Amino acid sequence: MTHATDAGLWGLVHAARRSLADDLSGLDAAQWHQPTLCTGWDVEHVVAHLTATATTGRWRWIRSIVLAGFRPAVHNERRLLEHLGPTPAQTLTRFEAVVEATVAPTADTAAYLGELLVHSQDIRCPLGISTEPDVRALTAVADFYARRNFTVPSKTLASGLRMTATDGPFRAGEGATVSGPTLALVMTMAGRRAYLDHLEGDGRDIIVDRLG
């Protein structure tokens, strides 16, 4: 595929944030505390985490991870708590304030786009919200995930497989075949078992085994 420019990727980030903010604006109090696909975090926690991600540049990230003893889970929890509002409405307001931000710890913009898209679906899937990310954004993330382990072991999960999107241009790898919507391929490479039922091919069982 043709790789998107960094400016193009940031445009997709901003559009994805706006889309998620629109979906979040209609939630009631109970929905804000619904468990998500991200184990241990409810909807409000995930939103606060996304705000933290959008406000943490390189040096702040380095300082935070050092103070956390190089434990990513501790780092993430501390940054999340910084951006968790006194109420869900205020947590949403804080997220809306960073929709147009272009801040990230590294230049791996596709990885941070992936984190946003995956966490958005972590929220939407349990709530039954039908909104899906732009296939252009998903394709950029799928391509990155198939080539690199970064925030998730996506390349490891995809190794030895021929992955083919049925709704877009994404193609990657050689070996046992796995096909399905680009969203399902991205979410599966991010370790979300909830999307396995959307995949087909003799490589699907390999992914099931790798996910444990």
Characterise this structure:
There is one protein chain. Strands 2-1-3 form a three-stranded mixed β-sheet. It has 212 residues and is mainly alpha-helical. The chain has helices spanning 6-24, 29-32, 43-53, 58-67, 72-83, 88-96, 109-127, 135-147, 154-158, 182-189, 204-211, and strands spanning 161-165, 171-172, 176-180. The two termini are 31 Å apart. The mean pLDDT is 92. It is built from eleven helices and three strands; from the N terminus they run H-H-H-H-H-H-H-H-H-E-E-E-H-H.
Helix content: 55-70%
| Model regions low in confidence, pLDDT < 50 over at least 5 residues | none
Order of helices and strands: HHHHHHHHHEEEHH
What is the radius of gyration?
A: 17 Å
What is the SS-derived class? mainly alpha
Helix tally? 11
Write a brief caption for the model.
The protein is mostly helical and 212 residues long. The chain has eleven helices and three strands; from the N terminus they run αααααααααβββαα. It has helices spanning 6-24, 29-32, 43-53, 58-67, 72-83, 88-96, 109-127, 135-147, 154-158, 182-189, 204-211, and strands at 161-165, 171-172, 176-180.
Key terms for this structure?
mainly alpha; 212 residues; globular; three-stranded mixed beta sheet; single chain; 6% strand; 56% helix
